[in-house]
Design a protein that fits this description.
The complex is a heterodimer of chains A (116) and B (117). With 116 residues, chain A is mainly beta. Chain A is 0% helix and 53% strand. Chain B is mainly beta. Chains A and B meet through strand 4, strand 5, strand 9 and strand 10 of A and strand 5, strand 6 and strand 10 of B.
């Protein structure tokens, strides 16, 4: 149980274009999902908390207009990187709260974004 | 503010031996959760073990166990009988559970563990 998927696993896009990353909870409902960014050999940096049916809560320093988050259903959250630039190239990971109030988060496999 | 510190950027262990990864944290909360996550080269985050702060007994999961010292705010991970598959980045994480939603996970910097055959 508690499986989280992400799509795509790897995406290459041109500078100036937008790219959407999907995060799905496959066997449970997730009212809250989280989006992280990770650079090589570094820790996970929380970008935002995604709440179903309401606006996302962004961490300080994260551009809301650049990283659009939509949590339209109990099993799907999306992260759209708008007007992507090479510095947005990174590994993006989503997670969801474990079902029934479990304290742990379950993580998706991540998406590698390369902006050329 | 809550912080998590892993002071060992890299550790190495011989196969079948035991290794301990250190983690300290800072919080003013009395009720919280602590976790160890493993991130192998595939980069999939895997939950290794969790500890509830209100429990005095140290958590154990097969070859993995923790030494939780609440007063010292220390939470180390012991891996016994190390295997080649244990090679990964290990992250210590802290979380305050707010209602049923859960607060943020706060991660340490990570410790990269290599296992020598």
């Amino acid at each position: 149980g508690a499986v989280v998927s992400q799509h795509p696993s790897w995406v290459i896009c041109k500078s100036g274009t937008s790219v959407k990353i999907e995060c799905r909870s496959l066997d449970f409902q997730a009212t809250t999902m989280f989006w992280y960014r990770q650079f090589p050999k570094q820790s996970l940096m929380l970008m935002a908390t995604s709440n179903e049916g309401s606006k996302a809560t962004y961490e300080q320093g994260v551009e809301k207009d650049k990283f659009l988050i939509n949590h339209a259903s109990l099993t799907l959250s999306t992260l759209t990187v708008t007007s992507a630039h090479p510095e947005d190239s990174s590994f993006y990971i989503c997670s969801a709260n474990g079902g029934q109030g479990a304290p742990e988060q379950y993580f998706g496999p991540g998406t590698r974004l390369t902006v050329t | 503010a809550q912080t998590v510190t892993q002071s060992q950027p890299e550790m190495s262990v011989q196969e079948a031996e035991t290794v301990t990864l250190s983690c300290t944290y800072d919080t003013s909360e009395s009720d919280y959760y602590l976790f160890w996550y493993k991130q192998p080269p595939s980069r999939q985050m895997i939950l290794v073990i969790r500890q509830e702060a209100y429990k005095q007994q140290n958590a154990t999961e097969n070859r993995f166990s923790v030494n939780f010292q609440k007063a010292a705010k220390s939470f180390s991970l012991k891996i016994s009988d190390s295997q080649l598959g244990d090679a990964a980045m290990y992250f210590c994480a802290y979380r305050v559970l707010i209602g049923n939603q859960g607060g943020k996970l706060i991660f340490g910097q990570g410790t990269e563990l290599s296992v020598k055959p």
